[in-house]
Amino acid sequence: MINIPKGTKDVLPEDAYKWHYLEKVIRKTAEDFGIREIRTPTFEHTELFLRGVGDTTDIVNKEMYTFLDKGERSITLKPEGTAGVARAYIENGLQELPQPLKMYYLTPVFRYERPQAGRLREHHQFGIEIYGSPSPYADAEVMLVAKTLFARLGLTEPVLNINSIGCPECRKSYNAALRSYLGDNISKMCPSCRERFDKNPLRILDCKEAGCKEITAAAPKTIDYLCDDCKTHFEELQSILTSSGVAFVVNPNIVRGLDYYTGTVFEFISSAIGAQGTVCGGGRYNNLVSDVGGKSAPAVGFGMGLERLLMILENLNLYLGEPEVPIIYLAPASRDDAGFAFVVANRLREAGVSADTDLLGRSLKSGMKYADKRGYKYVAVIGSEERESGMVKLKRMSDGAVTECGFDKIAEVLKCQK
Q1: Percent of the chain scored above 70 by pLDDT?
Q2: SS3 assignment, position 329
């Protein structure tokens, strides 16, 4: 037997309706904010992630699925959605469209990491990208998208945590202060942190090693080193959130794990799956477009893991839609009636009514048991009497109520009673 690869998961037919429901709520929420869908390839040239995500990040150093294709080109399965959208923004001339440009995606992403609750090596993300606006109102809007989605799903528990890591200019002062703080302790830290010390010391704060986290616990805070522009932006963002009735916590420890972030960073944090975990994270990345070869353009957005979100919704017993079952089952009374039942089922489908019938040659008794187990709303027995009279009885399974009608009226009756 060939087993599923570690860190991946099958979505079985009996669970697919939960995904359909969640994706429907996501799409409606995005639509209500005037955000349109973008779809980018599952794989990109590796250089895109080296330049965009950053070669000092865990994603690039440890987690990417990278391979040479048959043309000896280095290709990577996308580990996140933002870099691909930035590439599409440049390559397709989207900067020439009226700005800001608001986009969302629902996409699989791939990271070679230790599988954990709600995080798989292949998982799925909902992401928002707003390009062309430097305003803190754009920052607040992407946070409101997430908050609105959570509310529509009945989820009030995630807490919004915000921080600012500054622009490249004020980051210089911060990096100097951080290196000074770390001092001789850097030799006690993991190899990745020692490498980051010179290249990108901010990444040290994102290290998950217990010893490194202990050393950085009292490190200088980025918000204490913001330039005037970054400080004003962050203060305005807080004012906008407050006036919009959005509760938040200023958390100086949030830096996010990707190099492209500048200024605002944020996370929605939940404890509904045990230890606290991030269910949505994002921020501003004003230099990403220029970093991957385009003209400078401000941008802000987030990524949200769907597996983790579904796990939280299930743990809290929140509504996740209804299983998708055809509305009526046409049960042949005998094998001689199966062909006619098959024709009627297809006529109903053509009329826009979901219908099913026997495909195994079951007896009528077995067919009725099957219909009850599957949860069809209506059952109609089709035998010689029904075929001769042209009339059929529609039995509503919830209460046993029966409606009799002609075969040509079944669709009309069912549409009225749905």
Answers
A1: 98
A2: strand
Amino acid type, 342:
F
What's the distance, CA 247 to chain centroid? 23
CA gap 121, 270 in Å, rounded: 21
Q: What is the pLDDT of residues 86-136, one digit of tens each?
A: 999 999 999 999 999 999 999 999 999 887 766 799 999 999 999 999 999
- Spatial CA neighbour of 78 closest among 113, 43, 112: 43
Is residue 355 a contact partner of residue 348, using CB atoms and an 8 Å limit?
Answer: yes
Q: Which of 267, 233, 237, 303 is nearest to 84 (CA)?
A: 303
Taken in order of first residue, the domains within the chain and their CATH numbers are 13-167+227-315 (3.30.930.10), 328-417 (3.40.50.800)
Paired with 105 in beta bridges are 127
d(CA 246, CA 1): 52
Task: Give how far Cα 261 sits from Cα of 17, 166, 219, Å.
Answer: 35, 9, 19
Q: How many residues does the chain have?
A: 418
pTM to 2 decimals? 0.91
Q: What CA–CA distance (Å, rounded) separates 293 from 15?
A: 42
Which of 85, 97, 116 is closest to 6 using CA atoms?
116
DSSP per residue, 297-325: --EEEEEEEHHHHHHHHHHTT--------
Q: Provide the phi-psi class of 186: left if phi over 0, else alpha when psi is between -120 and 50, else beta.
A: alpha
User: How far apart, in whole angstroms, are the C-alpha atoms of residue 346 and residue 367?
Assistant: 18
